[in-house]
Amino acid sequence: MPVLDPEQLTGRTREHVRELQGLHCTLQPDAARAFLALRAAAALDGLQLAAASSFRDFGRQLAIWNGKFLGQRELLDRDGSAMDRALMTETDIVRAILYWSALPGASRHHWGTEIDVFDGGALASGQQAQLVPAEYAAGGVFAKLDRWLSQHAEEFGFFRPYDRDRGGVQPEPWHLSYAPISGAALAALTLEVLGHALTGVDLAGAAVVWPQLGEIHARYVRAVAAPSALALSAPLNPATRPS
Ligand SMILES: [Zn+2]
Predict the structure, then answer these.
(1) Secondary structure class of 10 (helix, strand, coil)
(2) Per-residue DSSP letters for 79-148?
(3) How far is CA 5 from CA 99, 163, 180, 187, 218, in A?
(4) What are the residues facing 108 on neighbouring strands?
(5) Residue 210 and residue 147: Cα distance in Å, rounded?
(6) Which end of the chain is more exposed for a tag (fewer CB within 10 A), N or C?
(7) In a 3-state reduction of DSSP, which class is residue 3?
(8) d(CA 169, CA 157)
(9) Alpha helices in the chain (DSSP H)
(10) Residue 36: how many CB atoms within 10 A of its CB?
(11) pLDDT at 217 over 90
């Protein structure tokens, strides 16, 4: 199984990922093969599995973080409503960013094993996926996809690390992770590796972040669902799996 090095774990290189032509999707080759197999199986059940987001590099995550801290991007509450930053301390702002966005270097999307998915076929023309929990809940536009993923994603090696509120990242039913690689990546992304990636970086809110880095690592990196044995043992190339 490929083991990611510290540069790859923190998104400071893209040498571990490839773009899937026409799918708006950039992943590690093994994860990409598994995603294509998952997508083909979903299509047989009438779902058009599409990627809203896949690999994201450190620079992109840093731009998102700094934009939110500096007020160039909206801050959203746990329920998705806009927050009034005039009433917030820098510590409050950091906490609010972390509801929905990872610290640069700490995003699972750096690994090339993570995909945010939606059902392109369920959207009316001109309608966009919002990636909010209500879309994936019973009665939501992606409720069928949510049920299908619960039944089938693990057969292809995928699981949902943000399955419920564990005191850190909010539940993200759209976020799939390719367990055969991401399990090892999580273990390898230590506090030391994260701290090294952030050293010397122009990070907005750094004075608040650095003293809390250990807690942020524990709550927002480590506190996720564990993949099942089925997801971990998915064959590297599902296309060759006997059916
Ligand atoms: Zn995601």
Answers:
(1) coil
(2) TS-B--GGG--HHHHHHHHHHH-PPTT--GGGGT-EEEEEEGGGSPTT------HHHHSTTSTTHHHHHH
(3) 27, 27, 16, 12, 20
(4) none
(5) 40
(6) C
(7) coil
(8) 22
(9) 6-9, 29-44, 58-69, 90-100, 133-136, 143-152, 179-188, 191-198, 206-209, 213-216, 229-232
(10) 18
(11) yes
**pLDDT tens figures, 42-54:** 999 999 999 999 9
Extract the tokens encoding 6. 């510290």
Contacts with 183 (C-beta within 8 Å, 6 or more apart), sequence order:
227, 232
Number of Cβ within 10 Å of residue 96's Cβ equals 19
Distance from Cα 115 to the centre of ligand 1, integer Å: 6
Per-residue pLDDT reduced to its tens digit, 113-163? 999 999 999 999 899 999 989 999 999 999 999 999 999 999 999 999 999
**What are the tokens at 180?**
């055969």
Residue 116 CA to ligand 1 centre (angstroms): 5
Structure tokens at 33: 């093969």
Distance between CA atoms of residues 85 and 225, nearest Å: 31
Q: Determine the distance from the C-alpha atom of residue 43 to the mean position of all C-alpha atoms in its chain, rounded to a whole number.
A: 23
Q: How far is the CA of 88 from the centre of ligand 1 (A)?
A: 26
